[in-house]
Amino acid sequence: MNEMERPLNILQVSTLDIGGGAELSAFDLFRAYRAHGHNSWLAVGYKKSDDPSIKQIPNEDYRIRWSKPRRTIDKLVAPFTGRIRGVGRLRDIICRPGKIRRWLERQRGYEDFDFPGTWHLLELTPNPPDIIHCHNLHGGYFDLRALPWLSHQVPVILNLRDAWLLSGHCGHSFDCQRWKTGCGRCPDLSIYPPIRRDATAYNWRRKRDIFANSHLYITTPSQWLMGKVRESILRGVQYRVIPNGIDLTVFHPGSQAEARRLLDLPVRAKIILLVAHNPFKDYDMIEKTLSLLDKTDGSDLLFICLGKSGADKAVGQGRMIYPGFERSRERVALYYRACDIFVHAAKEEAFGRTVAEAMVSAIPVVASAVGGVRDQVENGKTGFLVPAGDSASSLDIIKRLMKDPTLRSSIGQAGAATASSRFGLESQANTFLGWYREILADWKRGKPATASK
Length: 453
Known about the structure:
single chain; 15 helices; alpha/beta; seven-stranded mixed β-sheet; globular; seven-stranded parallel β-sheet
C-alpha cells in the first residue's frame, strides 16, 4: 500500500463530543473518517458519550499535586459553609480555579490557558497521530501555549469557528476593529467569552507570540472569516476555506404531513421554525417580528424555537413553543421538514449550520445578512437575506412567503439544490482528507525545526 492509500491516524480536538454547531461538526467528521477506514479519534475537554475512540483531555489528572490538598482543605472547611462569612468564597477559590494564581489571573482579565492535559495529547491515542485537527479552542479545556511545541511534532490544523483566536477575548468583534492593532480599551468585556477586567491587550499579545512561534495550517468555514484571518495576528503555512458539512442522509427534503404527524404538530397550521442556542443569536428580534405577523388564510400560527427551554406562550396572533435542546439529529430533521419557513436571526455568524440544514431540507430561509451566512444564501434565489436587527424587512419577507406557497416551494427547492452540492458532509470529509495528504507530503519535504516543550 502506497503512502496515498494507507489509513491515516487523525486526532481531532474539540470542546465536547456532544454539543452544538462546532461540536457537531467535529463529531460528524470523526465518524465520517472512521467510515472511510481511517483511524479516527476525538480528544475533548468534556466527554459525554461512552465511545472508546473519544478521549477526554486529562487536565485534572495533571493537576494531581494540587488536587489532594484541595480536597483535604475543602473537606475541613465544608461544615462551616453558610455559618461563617467568607467560607463559601474560600471553597470557591480552593476548588473551582484550582490554584490561587489561576484565580487571580482570571480576576485580572487574563484568558485561562492553565490546562496541562494539552501537553499530553500525543499520548491519548494507541497510534501516533499523523495530523491534529483543532476546532474551537475556547471553552475552558485547552492551553494555547502548547501550540508552538505541538505544531512542531505533528501537523496542526486550526479550524476557526469564530474570531476568538484573533482577539483579546471576544468570539466576535462586531464593529470594533481593535483586534487588528492590539486590542486594549475593549468596548464590551461581556461579549462571549467574557472576561472580568480589560486585559485584552495582554491577551492579544500573548496569542500573537504563540502564533509567531507555531507552524499552523488554517481553515475556516466561510470566506468572511478567512478575510478576518488575513488581517489578523494569526499566521499559517497554508489556508483553506472548507464549509461545514451536513449529513445528507439525515437532513433532506421529505413529507411535511408525515413530519408533523410524528412530532404531533397541527397539520393545517402555518409553522415557522427558529433556533436560539447561543449568545450571538438575536432571539428578541425574531420574537418582535413574529408578534407582528397576521394570520393570512385563517390558519393557526405556530412558532417553534429549538434550543431554548421555556413555557409555551402567545406571541402576537400565534403560539410559541420551546422543545429545548434536541439531541436526536433525526428529530431535528423532522422539525425542519414540518415547518413552512425557517427564520435565522443572528448578530454575527461564521457559518450558519442551521441555515444549511434548513436549505438542504428544502425549507425557505430568511436569514440575517451577517458574516458567513452571506456566503451561503444567494438573496432572492436560494433564500432571503435581511439586514441584521431589521424586524420590518424580516416581517415583509415572511409575509410574502406565508401568502405564496409557490414562492416557498421554488426558494426551498433552489436552496436544496445549491446547499446539497456545497454543504454535504461527504464533500467536507473528502476535502479535508485530500488536504491532510497534501499537508503530510509538505511536512515530509520540510519538517519544521523542533520547538521546546
